[in-house]
Amino acid sequence: MVKEVKDILEKYSGKLEREIGSEKTDVGSFGRDYLKFKESLVPELSKYEQWCHSIGNIITLKLAPKDEEKVRKQLEIAHLNVTPSQPVTLAIMSMLFVFFAGLLLFILYYLLADNLSFLLLFLTLIISMFVFYYFYTMPARLANKWRLKASSQMVPCILYTVAYMKHTSNLEKAVAFASSHLQQPLALDLKKVFWDVETGKYSSIKESLDAYLEKWKDTNIEFVESFHLIESSLYEPSEERRIQVLERALQVILDGVYEKMLKFTREVRSPLTNLYMLGIVLPTLGIALLPLASTLLGGSLQTIHVFVIFNVLIPFFVFYMTSEVLFKRPGGHGESELLENNPDYPKFISKKPYYKAALISVPLILIGLIPFIFQLGLIESIGLKHDYTFSELGLGFFGENKIFDFKTTEGGTTGPFGLMSTLLSLFIPLGIAMFFSVAYSERTKDLIKAREDTRNLEDEFISSLFQLGNRIGDGAPAEIAFSHVAESTRGTKTENFFRIVNSNIQQLGMSLEQAIFNPRRGALVYYPSELIATSMKILIESVKKGLKIAATSLISISEYVKNIHKINERLRDLLAEVVSDMKSNMSFLAPLLAGIVVGLGSMITYILNQLSMLVEVGAAGEVAAGGIGNIQEILSIFEVSHMIPAYFLQLSIGIYIIEITFILSKTLVTVDAGEDELRTVHETGINLKRGIYLYIIVALISTISLSFLGAIALGGMAG
Questions:
Q1: Which residues on neighbouring strands pair with residue 412, listed in sequence order?
Q2: What pLDDT band is residue 427 in, cutting at 50, 70 and 90?
């Protein structure tokens, strides 16, 4: 009986297909595609799953029902095949591992050096807390990353579904059509809708789709409402009313995205201001006091403390604040292109740019290490001294100070304190920044150019698509309409597309579908655009229903895409102020302020060093006779050997600027365009180059000029 029913269904479904004349869509393959897609996901996800399955199973924790439900939702959104307790167990075990490893180092250091390093213990505690936070919030971050990337494809998803439904009122085929033309991760979600039906979890596509839409109710309600409108169009009695409901579905998601991004731009302004003040301005200003503070504390504040505070703790704090900002970003707007589909993607993942960058950066870093290289025994063997004075180099204006100036005390050798050492130290952050800047530029320049060319092409193609729809609407067959549009678009980038299609039809005798989609000679070979491919696929499908339907479909797509572009431009205007403020703070104000602080630190070190020399040569008595006071007593408070060398002070600030640039570049791109790895890497390289150049120039000028002023002042006192 079951076999007879199946035979009847196959018989009449085939007859129905032939009568409708539409191309049969193998929707059954979409479920199988889900498994293939799942296996080829980003390595970060599968690696995290492996950690959860291995370390997360050491102990089983029972979470509170509310926390368990929250974590479960995050794991489902991120498509992670782990239980809610495993990520929490992984976070706790990672924290304990780091803490006990640090505690072991603390004990070993005490046994070997007979000294209690409470800094090491404090640093261990801070890092273990950060490790716990990092792994505990990993499901939320991966879910947010997936949500932003998937939601950036929601507007095209509704567009493709509506465009298909307008000529074929079949929800199953419309969703299959959308999933085949979208990119992951939303394409993966839609394929899973079919997978859940095939595995018997749900009995129909509508039931499976409704269950999937439940996940987006809290974050993208407009996407849910749009799909419900699409579903309701199936029950409309009149064709005119059905078309109106479908058009309303697209308008709902466009309006919803705009309203949410408008609210986000208002809410994000204050957190970003706090981030800049607390994460950049205050730390940078505070570092100007470190040279004097280190001397007043008698050497208790050391170089390692500065590195820990400015290169570990504050970047952790900034990372936390930016993560909180990004969690608030609504979806629906952002870059929807999948980077892996770009034919130049191998250049993006290639290691060759790093080798080229190393050839530039390694010599710069070696120049920065010259003060330490000169302390090696090898220097004497080639006839050079370990150190020189400015007078020996012909720069007597700066006195008899040594250019490197390492000082030997009871506790060992400290330094370098010399002005030349500070200037040479600028090459180290320059080399590090240039390494990433050059490598990132080499990796992304071709892909960015290809993306811009494609977007310019698509902008022109939308107008051409409108003309093509009008020609077909006038009664011209689609094959002839292409030649007419080729003439009317003369001089544009899309002219050749229509000429190639027309040439394939007229000269090679291809069908319209082959003229466009042929893998060797088709027009799409020369115009690799998802929008153009989808538009042409809809043309092929709709022209089978009649010229009027085909014309209406093309004109509708043209109008829809124009509306989407208008919304995107309005959203960019809304974000422009926030983005521009953040970019100026990152690439201009922060490097400018940091460079001035380096100059101040160098000036303080130079003045105290010069005063010490004046005391040693007996000039202090002359200065005291001039009514200045007892310089020697003042210098006993400000002991130069206890001071943090300006060399390491600058090094800490320079690395801090690089770290902040990485963090804020990622935040800036995500706020403006959602998850976009290509743009993140590209703009990080640009921001590093701009920021580090400005920082080096300002630090160089301020260090020389302020030290010059200090030399003039001390020269007047000594004279």
A1: 409
A2: very high
| Mean pLDDT (whole number) for 65-85 | 81
Q: Angle at Cα 257 formed by Cα 256 and Cα 262, nearest 5°? A: 100
Helix 205-213 with 186-198: angle, nearest 10 deg: 130
Check whether the bond before 43 is cis (ω within 30° of 0): no
Dihedrals phi, psi of 242, to nearest 5 degrees: -65, -45
562 with 462: CB under 8 angstroms? yes
255: its two tokens: 């309006």
Whether the Cβ atoms of residue 419 and residue 602 lie closer than 8 Å to each other:
yes
Exposure string of 452-482, with b = 16+ CB inside 10 Å and e = fewer, is eebeebbeebbebbbbbbbbbbeebebbebb
What are 130's two structure tokens?
A: 């950060």
Please tell me the distance from the alpha carbon of residue 609 to that of residue 614, in angstroms, as a whole number. Answer: 9
Q: Which helix (H) or strand (E) holds 240?
A: helix 239-276
CB 361 within 8 A of CB 436: no
And the tokens for 245? 């409901």
Three-class SS of 68-80: HHHHHHHHHHCCC
Q: Using one digit for the tens of pLDDT, what is the confidence trace for 654-710?
A: 999 999 899 888 888 887 777 778 888 898 999 999 999 999 999 999 888 888 887
This prediction's pTM: 0.74
- Quick one: DSSP state of residue 587? I
Is omega for the bond preceding 185 within 30 degrees of 0, making it cis?
A: yes
Longest dimension (CA), the chain: 119
Pull the structure tokens for residue 693: 């150049």
For 292, residues 6+ apart whose C-beta sits below 8 A from its C-beta are 604, 638, 643
Tokens of 219: 């974050």
Percentage helix, strand, coil, to 5, in the chain?
80, 0, 20
Is-contact 37 184, C-beta < 8 A? yes
Query: With contact defined as beta carbons under 8 Å apart, do 711 and 398 qualify?
Result: yes
How far from chain centre, in Å, is Cα 423? Answer: 32
**Residue appearing with tokens 């202090």:** 620
Within 78-185, residue ranges assigned H as helices are: 85-113, 118-136, 138-151, 154-167, 171-181
- Nearest Cα residue to 529 out of 512, 516, 514, 544: 516
- Read off the amino acid at residue 292: L
